[in-house]
Amino acid sequence: MAEPKNNGRKPDGTFAPGNSMGGRTPGSRNKTTLAVEALLEGEHEALTRAAINKALEGDTTALRLCLDRISPARKDSPVTFALPAIRSIEDAVAASSALLAAVAAGEVTPDEAGRVMSLLSSHKQLVETCDLETRLAALEAKQ
Questions:
Q1: Are 66 and 48 in contact (CB under 8 A)?
Q2: How many domains is the chain partitioned into structurally?
Q3: Where in the sequence is the domain holding 38, given as residue range(s)?
Q4: In angstroms, rounded to a whole number, what is the distance separating the alpha carbons of residues 82 and 39?
Q5: Tens-digit pLDDT profile for residues 15-73
């Protein structure tokens, strides 16, 4: 009967650090990527010029390719709406209310509001931590 593989585990059952399962070493490149790069070696200028020429001739696919390189689509956009300063937990609640009002008014999309709310939550935690640290320092100073 064949010996079962340990699947990268040490004798105590925990996983061994590193790439003990085999495969490529960290940082190594895929063979297909290397082959394509070898084929394109030294042809970048000619290929770019050919794509530009096709775009100028009216090839919409080549035109889209060129324009995407010149001005890529934005993955995110700024969100502008009134938001109070957040220095306390109460301010965070007021900011959350302002954000919900902005969504209700159509100034901010629900997706944008979700991302901003995540920022508000993180900031609220920082405010809480700072407040607790200040209170703890005051208590320690009294002793």
A1: no
A2: 2
A3: 32-70
A4: 54
A5: 666 555 556 677 778 888 888 888 888 888 898 899 999 999 999 999 998 888 888 77
